[in-house]
Amino acid sequence: MVQSLTKKDLKDVVDGALDDHTVKLFKYLGGEFKKIDLKFEQQDKRFDDIMGAISDLAGDIKSYHEELLALGHKVDRLERWIHQIAQETGVKLSID
Question: Which residues contact 92 (CB under 8 A, 6 or more apart)?
Fold first, then answer.
């Protein structure tokens, strides 16, 4: 004897099957999103490390530039003194 299903029985079967597939889908997608989040966190860490290195390098370059400026002023002052001493002592300076 074949039992006939009512619309409600059919709806309950379909809803149950959809709910089961929906739960499986959301569990799967949740796992995939966790993997993606982990990769983004790793990339963020790498990016932060790179930005820190660039910042350190920029600081080093700034310090080096300041040292070069100070050295240039010192050389200018020494050259001025050499010319003053040469002028006072009558020594002729030549490039040779």
Answer: 86
DSSP string over the chain:
-PPPPPHHHHHHHHHHHHHHHHHHHHHHHHHHHHHHHHHHHHHHHHHHHHHHHHHHHHHHHHHHHHHHHHHHHHHHHHHHHHHHHHHHHTPPP---
pLDDT in tens, 13-57: 777 777 778 888 888 999 999 999 999 999 999 999 999 999 999
Query: Angle CA(18)–CA(20)–CA(24) in degrees, nearest 5?
Result: 115
| Residues 6 or more apart in contact with residue 5 via CB below 8 angstroms | 13
86, 92 in Cβ contact below 8 A? yes
pTM of the model: 0.55
